[in-house]
Specification:
7 strands; 280 residues; globular
């Protein structure tokens, strides 16, 4: 990754959760390549250190923050450290998320089901709760909550994931209205069915393979997934302000952001996210 001297996000600071691998890592590196200094947060300290080192090799300032996003005190401390080390946070990307447990609701552990909701919804809430006061004072900031088209679909073998992403999408719309007067934009972003450790594990889980007849595995193997570079590219459009007029809406990786900007005003819950992939 090469440092861009005069780039879109030069002088800005981003805080990215779930940044140790997969989409979160790709988003952190993309933000760094666009000129932002980046705080990367996740539970895995070793992987975070590698992401941080990659950002620094690209000429960016970066800090690694081992973090459980459901720990409110730890989230507040991580945000404070970021502001002290890198400066005020301009872009928050809530990428931390889990998909398990897999199975029918009467067969799975209720504690594990609720943990998914805690990470995917409460964790994101704690992060925006921590960054918002400073954003409101400066009257600028962008919050990008990574959701999924599962928010609007029925997946009986991972209901906690779909329910949590639906809640996150709805909360994003409500938050956008609440902070609009402070010059802050909020997006629910559906990144597509990207080949990551999470989707590989999903595709290979025996209960999932039986249910969809290997459809997820074929989608990955046949290249019917979303390129991670495209997913990161659309996120950059949101982070740098190209879609500010769409604050409060759910943005899908396949959307034409420019066209949607021209049609601005349709509320989030009136728009359905496009299909991420087709299972045959």
């Amino acid at each position: 990754m090469k440092h861009v001297e005069h780039s879109d996000l030069a002088g800005r600071v981003a805080f990215v959760t779930g940044a140790s691998r997969g989409l979160g890592r790709a988003y952190a590196l993309a933000l760094g390549s666009a000129g932002a200094d980046v705080a990367v947060a996740a539970r895995s300290a070793d992987s975070l250190a590698e992401t941080c080192a990659t950002l620094e090799r690209g000429g960016r300032r970066a800090i690694a923050l081992p973090l459980d996003v459901t720990d409110s005190d730890a989230v507040a401390a991580a945000v404070a450290r970021t502001e002290q080390t890198l400066g005020p946070i301009d872009v928050l990307v809530n990428g931390a998320g889990v998909m398990s447990p897999l199975g029918r609701d009467w067969e799975i552990d209720p504690v594990a089901w609720w943990r998914t909701v805690e990470v995917n919804v409460y964790g994101a809430f704690l992060c925006w709760h921590a960054v918002l006061p400073a954003m409101m004072e400066r009257r600028r900031g962008r919050i990008i909550n990574i959701t999924s088209s599962a928010a609007g679909k029925r997946y009986p073998l991972y209901s906690a994931y779909g329910a949590s992403k639906a809640a996150l999408s709805h909360a994003s719309a409500s938050l956008a209205d609440a902070v609009r007067e402070f010059g802050i934009q909020v997006f629910a972003y559906c990144p597509g069915f990207v080949r990551t450790d999470m989707t590989e594990a999903l595709a290979d889980a025996p209960i999932i393979r039986d249910f969809v007849h290997d459809g997820f595995r074929r989608a990955l193997d046949e290249g019917r997934s979303t390129p991670i570079e495209r997913s990161a590219g659309v996120l950059l459009l949101l982070a740098r302000g190209d879609a500010d007029a769409l604050s409060g809406q759910q943005i899908d990786v396949s959307d034409d952001v420019s066209a949607l900007t021209d049609q601005q005003g349709k509320p989030l819950l009136d728009r359905g996210a496009s299909e991420e992939f087709v299972v045959s």
